[in-house]
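ingest -> validate -> predict -> emit
validate: passed (alphabet ok, no gaps, 335 aa)
predict: started
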Amino acid sequence: MRNRFLFVLSTVLLTVGCKDFKSPKEGTDKVSSGKEALDAKALHPGKGLMERECYMCHNPKASEAHMIAPPMAMVKMHYIDSGTTKEQFTEALVHWLNDPEQESKIPNAVERFGSMPYIPYPEKVIEQIAEYMYDYEIDRPDWFADYLENDKPEAKNSLEIYDYTTTGNAEKRYANKGLGHALATKAQLGRNLMKAINEKGTQGAVEFCNVRAIPLTDSMSVMQNAIIKRVTDKPRNPQNQANTKELKHINLFKEQIASGKSVEPIVELQDNEVNFYYPITTNTMCLQCHGNPNEQIVPETMTALKNLYPKDKAIGYGTNELRGIWSINFGTNGQ
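emit:
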């Protein structure tokens, strides 16, 4: 299904793919020396806007396999070359957001992630983010250098849709398939969550999760022909409570994350079925509903949480902590 990897751009950006990169504007990724330049970058309003609004889907810390949208550095490389002015770049961003259904300059991202929805951001917000992206170096994922090296006509496009029949052992194939199910579901939830936030703020996100998160996940289970769950040891909704086996995997993932070890999916094969497990970790956006009361969680949001979830256990998190895991069951289907 073309739109199974539907994503929402959490802030101002273009739908991008990964072929035919243009060279970045010479000097636009060069960081000026000196404390004054560093302070200016840190204080630029576009930096906070981009990190707060974009990184839910475009976080540069996301691994290449687990992106639900391209990193912002990739946007910059596609739309700024040696002849692009700041005004032209800003105009391109504004134009795209006003009509995201127009033909994409690089269609591979649409093919993988689906079409972006229309989100009416104020033009001032677009200008501030565009200015920051144009003038300063944008954080790049750890894998980005390898991507650039491999982005040649003869190389496999790293943003192509998952090939579940890729060569390799059965466990690797099923791990890829499980990740595909998780990504598709995460993208659908993220798109609807951002829509709720845009309409009603963080309280809208709380209401969305209360009413729609589990039904949407169940719908994705039907679409993906799998049983897809998000479970945790600290549930907000009691229906997300992990069972004994899932709790064991949660504890293992916590140990791996705390020690800085590389985290790989857990794949269990039994007869003609696969059980797949993978961690769900927190980022800054998550802390608006899962951080500390009166710090990241504002009083209005805390009131909504208490009203909708009287037995809530899902607060007190920091960034990059295990919030829960994907627990997905699907058939081998001869793969």
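The first strand starts at residue 227 and ends at 231.
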